[in-house]
Amino acid sequence: MIRPILAALIACTLATPALAQTRIGSVNTTFRLLGDDKIVVDRYDDPKVDGVSCYMSRAETGGLKGHLGLATDPSRFSIACRATGPVSLKGKLPDNEVVFGASASWLFKQIRVSRIWDKDKRVLVYLVWSTQALTPEGSPYNSVSAVAVDH
């Protein structure tokens, strides 16, 4: 029983793209002795689309569990994606692809950003959502942003 669960955890971890993030800043929300709870803002540059950056804010848990990497961060996040230069696609994009990921707990929870291509309107839609490896339902929390592709 443990081997299938371990295999599923490893697969979930490997299926999330490597982080290409830049920490922009953070604000403290709750005082704790070993590090405050905070809201962090990270920038992710789309690896397959030049000129698009996504700014994601999310909660990070502090305290002893947070310091040791054992805390599960809340599924609360927001995303804003913008054209930060001329937007150009690097080849053909899939209709739906996970492009960024971040761990929200040690092994069990991931925050992911999917890029969905709206061909009719020529718009890239970015959806942030979370998963939980040991529960079937994941999380209903999500946020969406869109960037138009001119050419």
Structural summary, described in words:
The chain has 151 residues and is mainly β. The chain has one domain (2-148). Strand 1 and strand 2 (37-45) form a beta hairpin. It has helices at residues 2-15, 63-68, and strands spanning 21-30, 37-45, 49-60, 77-89, 96-103, 109-118, 123-132, 142-148. The protein has a four-stranded antiparallel beta sheet, with no helix packed on it. Helices cover 13% and strands 52% of the residues.
Task: Offer a few descriptive terms.
elongated; mainly beta; four-stranded antiparallel β-sheet; 151 residues; disordered N terminus
How many angstroms separate the termini?
52 Å
Rg value: 17 Å
**Poorly predicted residue ranges:** 1-19
Work out the helix count.
2
List the helices and strands and how they pair.
Layout: H1 2-15, E1 21-30, E2 37-45, E3 49-60, H2 63-68, E4 77-89, E5 96-103, E6 109-118, E7 123-132, E8 142-148
Antiparallel strand pairs: 1-2, 2-3, 3-4, 5-6, 6-7, 7-8
Could you give a short description of this structure?
The protein has two helices and eight strands, in the order H-E-E-E-H-E-E-E-E-E.
